[in-house]
Amino acid sequence: MPQRFDFAILGASPFAALVALGLAETGLKVCVAGPSRSPMQLMRGLDVAAGAITRPETWQVLQASLRDGESLISRHFPQAVQREALALSARSAGGRDALGHIRHMAGAFGVTTEPLPKRNGEAAILMRGLGRLDRRKIYRDLPKVFAAAGVELIGAIPEQLEISGGETTFETETGPVRAHSAVLAGNATAPLVGMLGLDHRVECVETWALLTRPAAPVRWGCALDIDDGASLQRFDNGQVEVACPGKRADAFERLASLLAPDGEIDVIGMAEYRTVRVPDRAPLINPPQARSPGFAFGLEPYGAFLAPVFVAYLLGKTDAGTAAFFAGLGPGKREGVAEYGGNRVLAK
């Protein structure tokens, strides 16, 4: 007989873990399928409470969710959130224009920003006082946190799902699992995207994460390029991880431009993985359906802080405005939801 759950969350990111924990706090029986991640491995992603957001609706929902988001994180992972400055940069003319718009929007929602000096034709702004999640602390404590919360970690993401009678069934190393609802959350579920019929909505992009010991201290704790999506984060031990969509050579070139334009780079770790990219650069979200699992893609880097409001949306407990916001991010017409750079990714 299969193990039965109310929700199965498929994913390996902090967002997936926090959604599972949020659902479990309501009394539901929840399991998580996702590759285990040691705190010594590459983190493959940045979690910070902002990003290249140009829509006021996104800012409004994110800012309204921050208190609950940080509270959920702190209940399960004390001291995993720290205050950090995020540097946003752009090299294209459109990107430089977008930075001005992003700065205006951030200021309107209470985020302190300032321009940074231009370097090699690259414009940048700094957002101060943002919450940033330390993935190493999350992954270190995840097994015991899940156990304490009653969330069952059931192994790797399955290779296929079977939807029947409104329920999702899949195989695990310990036997079959059946869930009333299933949600694909984030990049780790890229191999399953094909079953969703979203070929016209997403692209699975080769991405490289590189871990390095920089020769000189990195000025900012985290950074994001709004043109190509490359991100940087510094850890407490001084190591820096850069993640960059594209080939490995592209990642090394980006790493050099960020850290050592005139010298050698000491790379101590690297990993290739797939990221699920949405051409209009807005999140792609859908609740579970009778014949399809739910999904949430494109929420990086702020998704972890949206976990409580996403849980409320899954359970039909948001206000009308928030429900309309998420509904507009579904795979339908998606009118007016594009963020900066929308519809440019697939044309590269």
Structure overview:
The chain is α/β, with parallel strands linked by helices. It has a single domain (3-327), classed as FAD/NAD(P)-binding domain, CATH 3.50.50. It has seven helices and 16 strands. It has helices at residues 14-25, 56-76, 93-108, 135-149, 248-259, 307-314, 320-327, and strands at residues 3-10, 30-33, 81-90, 113-119, 122-133, 152-153, 162-164, 167-172, 175-185, 203-212, 222-225, 231-234, 240-245, 267-277, 284-286, 294-297. Strands 1, 2, 6, 7, 8, 9, 15 and 16 form an eight-stranded mixed β-sheet that branches. It has an eight-stranded mixed β-sheet with strand order 4-5-3-11-12-13-10-14, sandwiched between helices. Strand 15 and strand 16 form a beta hairpin. Helix 1 packs parallel to helix 4 (135-149) and helix 1 (14-25) crosses helix 6 (307-314). The radius of gyration is 19 Å and the shape is globular. The relative contact order is 0.20. Mean pLDDT is 90; it is low at 343-348.
